[in-house]
Write a structure and sequence with these properties.
By secondary structure, the protein is an alpha+beta fold. The protein contains two helices and four strands. Strands 1-2-4-3 form a four-stranded mixed beta sheet, covered by helices on one side. Helix 1 crosses helix 2.
């Protein structure tokens, strides 16, 4: 997993999935990533618990690069990059 203290880059797109249950939040994240150009960065807002535990791992298994994962006041901000070559 990426270092959570790494500086956050400005994302090319953002999706707010707070309140979205698993595995729907992973599916929506993956669909949104597929809409981006290769190399672009997506910021995903996730709830604590199962969403933040499952979505980053599932994305990595599917070949996506996790850039940062930061705890905010009431959610987690995950930055994930679409690979140059699609997984």
């Amino acid at each position: 997993m990426a270092n959570s203290s790494a500086p956050r880059a400005t994302p090319d797109a953002q999706i707010d999935l707070r309140g979205t249950p698993c595995p729907l939040n992973f599916v929506r994240t993956k669909l949104r990533l597929e809409q981006l150009s290769p190399g672009q960065l997506l910021e995903v807002w996730l709830d604590a618990g199962e969403p933040v535990e499952q979505v980053p791992d599932s994305l990595q298994i599917n070949g996506y690069s996790i850039e940062t994962l930061e705890a905010q006041d009431d959610f987690f901000a995950l930055q994930v990059r679409r690979p140059v070559e699609s997984p």
